[in-house]
Amino acid sequence: GQQVMQIPQYQHVQEGEDFTTYCNSSTTLSNIQWYKQRPGGHPVFLIQLVKSGEVKKQKRLTFQFGEAKKNSSLHITATQTTDVGTYFCAGESGGGADGLTFGKGTHLIIQP
Amino acid sequence: DAGVIQSPRHEVTEMGQEVTLRCKPISGHNSLFWYRQTMMRGLELLIYFNNNVPIDDSGMPEDRFSAKMPNASFSTLKIQPSEPRDSAVYFCASSPPGHPYSPLHFGNGTRLTVT
Predict the structure, then answer these.
(1) Which of B44, B68, B71, B102 is the most exposed place for a label (fewest CB within 10 A)?
(2) Are strands B53-56 and B110-114 parallel, antiparallel or unpaired?
(3) Residue B69: which H helix or E strand, with range?
(4) Is the pLDDT of residue B99 over 80?
């Protein structure tokens, strides 16, 4: 079945440093979604990428979808303490949310 | 928008007891998902309903787990009998119709501890 691998599992950064998490799928994806989960909270939808090579930005966050639609990345510029949490990618190879497979997430720890 | 509502928030029970988790999806959403989250296995999809009909239950661990959606505003996940390895956070999520790749809206989850 479809597998979505995410690295790194943990990332410690100093406040103000940049952060990147990578997502790789064993199959070509129709779309990829990114979620953020704060400690003790629930996953919250951030963004969805659909097109090959697509790049989207949300303030300090930049999301990319690879040309082959098998990988994606999330980059945060100048991290802040509010960025703490776990970032999940979720890939889908079919035509509906029933095929959404989550990566295991990257835990971002920020040291002030 | 009240969001997806789950109850209870926390459940502590003894091995062998029956556990029922409840979920109210966002009004107007026609897809509902039950996920289980553990440190070891991450977020696992247990079962998915579309228009109250179970579509994919291949993630349900075993016969001890069952899920129902009697109407568009309510779903339950039942574990009978419960075992310590069922300890996890169980999330319910819903998504709206009309879009092929609808984002999921998660509830706050139920933290289940089986002793």
Answers:
(1) B71
(2) unpaired
(3) strand B65-71
(4) no
Nearest residue on chain B to A100, judged by CA atoms?
Answer: B45
* pLDDT top residue among B102 and A94: B102
Give pLDDT tens digits for B60-69. Answer: 988 999 999 9
Cβ-contact A77, A62 below 8 angstroms: yes
Q: Which residue of B has its CA nearest to A105?
A: B42
Tell me: pLDDT of B100 over 80. Answer: no
Average per-residue pLDDT for chain B: 93
Distant-in-sequence contacts of B24-30, Cβ < 8 A, 24+ apart: B24/B73, B24/B74, B25/B72, B25/B73, B25/B75, B25/B92, B25/B94, B26/B1, B26/B2, B26/B94, B26/B96, B26/B105, B27/B73, B28/B96, B28/B97, B29/B94, B29/B95, B29/B96, B29/B97, B29/B105, B30/B72, B30/B95, B30/B96, B30/B97
* Tokens read off for B57: 């239950």
Contacts of B43 in chain A (CB under 8 A): 43, 88, 102, 105
Positions in chain A short of pLDDT 50:
none
pLDDT of residue B86: 97
